[in-house]
């Protein structure tokens, strides 16, 4: 074995030098050490607290994104629900109107029979329109356009209508067609459907 030579880089003066026994130096040294120690503890606690807050914020951000998606889904469902409500209301209205029609079955043949009783051989109807009136559709609002050969025939027809009905309004004018004179009239009246029972 060969002998190894070592080089001492540490000075002999330093190796024999003793730490100072100065009291101020020791107080300063240990005070600085304690301050650094507490600073490191404070920094470590602050860093831990920061990472906890960061983690919490990340979790809250993820929750917010999830809730935001759910909110969008709920908004879409809300729009669909409104559309369904509108359709449901329209359907309910249609059903209500159909129920009213079925509840109020009008015997049109009986109505036409009564109306034709108002006419005589010299009075005719060209057109007729009928609308339902009242809460329970008890009344019919009847509009008739027609003609009569004479004023007397027209007056008899109007008298017959006035006997049975309310709100009778008549308008007429004299027509001369190729030398033939007759009266063109329009009559409106309210007919009570209780007469059809």
From TrEMBL:
Keywords: Membrane, Transmembrane, Transmembrane helix. This is Fimbrial assembly family protein. It comes from the Bacteria. The keyword Transmembrane applies. The chain crosses the membrane at residues 25-45.
């Amino acid at each position: 074995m060969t002998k190894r030579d070592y080089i001492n880089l540490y000075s002999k003066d330093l190796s024999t030098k003793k730490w100072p026994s100065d009291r101020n130096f020791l107080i300063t040294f240990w005070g600085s050490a304690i301050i650094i120690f507490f600073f490191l503890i404070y920094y470590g606690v602050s860093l831990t607290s920061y990472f906890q807050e960061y983690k919490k914020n990340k979790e809250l951000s993820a929750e917010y994104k999830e809730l935001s998606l759910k909110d969008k889904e709920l908004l879409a469902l809300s729009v669909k629900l409104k559309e369904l409500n509108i359709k449901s209301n329209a359907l309910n209205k249609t059903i209500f109107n159909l129920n009213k029609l079925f509840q109020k079955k009008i015997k049109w043949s009986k109505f036409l029979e009564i109306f034709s009783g108002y006419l005589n051989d010299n009075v005719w109807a060209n057109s007729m329109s009928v609308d339902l009136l009242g809460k329970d559709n008890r009344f019919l609002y009847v509009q008739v356009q027609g003609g009569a050969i004479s004023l007397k025939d027209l007056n008899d027809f109007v008298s017959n209508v006035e006997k049975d009905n309310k709100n009778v309004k008549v308008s007429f004018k004299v027509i001369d067609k190729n030398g033939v004179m007759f009266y063109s009239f329009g009559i409106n009246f309210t007919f009570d459907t209780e007469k059809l029972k």
